[in-house]
Inverse folding.
């Protein structure tokens, strides 16, 4: 099993920045990719960004390209989402997911593990 814990959410004004962190523990050697998804009230969970470990690749939703950056620490057990130029429409609960093997990282169905989520609120 793999456990995921998100942190770094909070309240920020439009135009501001936040960095989310997702810490993985347990059988992390089985993980080959991690992603961030978000869910706003009364909306479906949507893809934000993902990183595949081997071979290395990153993926972004069009709505966040150029503003958000996903990265991984050297130890490989923590993934970050740097969010800049935040907008009110970025307000949501952000979830971290992890996947074994090769999956369609844009689709949340393929992820094997999920964290509890962290709230991000962007005020106008």
């Amino acid at each position: 099993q793999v456990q995921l814990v998100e942190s770094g959410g909070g309240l920020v004004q439009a135009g501001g920045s936040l960095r989310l962190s997702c810490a993985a523990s347990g059988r992390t050697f089985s993980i080959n990719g991690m992603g961030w998804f978000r869910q706003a009230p009364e909306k479906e969970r949507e893809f934000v960004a993902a990183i595949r470990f081997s071979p290395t690749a990153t993926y972004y939703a069009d709505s966040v390209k150029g503003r958000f950056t996903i990265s991984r620490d050297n130890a490989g057990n923590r993934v970050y989402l740097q969010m800049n130029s935040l907008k009110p429409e970025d307000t949501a609960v952000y979830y971290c997911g992890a996947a074994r093997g090769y999956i369609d990282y844009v689709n949340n169905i393929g992820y094997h593990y999920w964290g509890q989520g962290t709230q991000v609120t962007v005020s106008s």
Remarks:
- The mean pLDDT is 95.
- The two ends are 40 Å apart (CA to CA).
